[in-house]
TrEMBL record:
Name of this protein: MFS transporter
Any one of the GO CC terms: plasma membrane
Keyword Chloroplast attributed: no
PROSITE patterns, sorted: MFS
The species this protein was found in: Pseudoclavibacter chungangensis
Family annotation (InterPro entries): MFS (IPR011701), MFS_dom (IPR020846), MFS_trans_sf (IPR036259)
Subcellular localization: Cell membrane
A matching Pfam family: MFS_1
Amino acid sequence: MPPQGAIVAVLALAGLCSSFMFTLVVPIQSKLPELLQAPREDTAWVVTATLLAAAVITPIAGRLGDMYGKRRIVLALIAIMVVGSVVAAVSHGIIGIIVGRTLQGAIVGVVPLGISILRDVLHERRIDSAIALISATLGVGGAIGLPISALITERSDWHVLFWVAASLGAVVFGLVLWIVPVSVLCTAGRFDFVGAAGLTVGLVGVLLAFSRGNEWGWLSAPVLALGIGGLLVLVLWGWFELRITDPLLDLRVAARRPVLLTNLASLAMGFALFASNVIYPQMLELPVESGSGFGLSLLAASLVVMPSGLVMMVLSPLSGRLSNLFGPRLLLLLGAISLIAAYAFTIAWHSAVWHLVVANVLVGFGIGFGYAAMPMLIMRSVPANETGASNGLNALFRSLGTSIASAIVGAVLATGSVTFGGAQIPTPDAFLVSFVLGGAAAVLALIVALFIPRGPTVEEPRPSLPTGPLPRID
């Protein structure tokens, strides 16, 4: 087997590649209508499609990894991302870009699968530190990727962004194939295609309602139909999953107190993180004359936000040691407290750029501790043969939190806007309300984390699983 440090490094690089996909098009987002010669409501799908694909694919990929080999599914997800990047790179119309961005969203599933691989191959004493490092990449990739994307956009054609993504994906694919060992711990049974279809339809309906509510109107017929219809499908899906032998997601495991509470805390923390991603860059880039911003360029603004990602990376070894000593529950509590401090600081002081630098450093502490804790808590509460699906479900809850934050904070900023220079600019009061919402989500994460049990609560695997030696997969 390759050195364990090399395995961790390769999976961390895969995590960086995954989070980079979300910041890839940020520098060109406002210019997409002009670049693609399409209305803004259509170009919004360049971002929405990736979010939807990531939310749907992650839990399904987790289950496929548990059944057919985690490395095999990781390679498949990376390959899909590379194909999507090439499709977008050679496209000049909106359809090709949306298709490419949808395929790029597949790579988000490599992070929960990578964390599950660590449980299978690492020595017990190294698992927590390695998980903390992989979890940190969720923030580090975006924080580092944003200035890189901005620099490429300023110096070259925007299609180069997608060629860079394809090249990075190809490198990661080769490294995973070479370094990461073949999966041998697998779950017996058949894949639940009906459950996968039901989860996909339900999630797409709910997430579309949240992501498009501001534009279409929250009480419009399409939003109500998508939201209510999606919820009904998810209810029927849950009823079906509880009645079959090999469900896509074992909801009885997901309903265990530590797993359920961790997922609810993930949703709240995802909201708090994405709210900061929406608020701070806008404040930094809006014109000074508007009274709401600091007039920085996209590159300068991304450099102000970047310290949060660097803090997450530096924290990863500390997070592992703290988890070994005190358990991951403490990390989640520290993460929530740090996010509360970040928003409280911003509510009190937000009149200078350095105020936002301090706030982003606190956000880095919050997400660094919180995102490291969540997979550790999950893996202490589920059987080893269900870590892929359970981590995928946890990632789904984080995605739901980010989607809800995007919709609610976007609605607040849009409602509290005034016309300046022919454009709608959020007012300082709208930003203040957004800070309060982000802080409230962090408080909710703290309250939920307080009720998570302190010790591990793993139960025996389901009796339908085989008891003999497992075959070698891949």
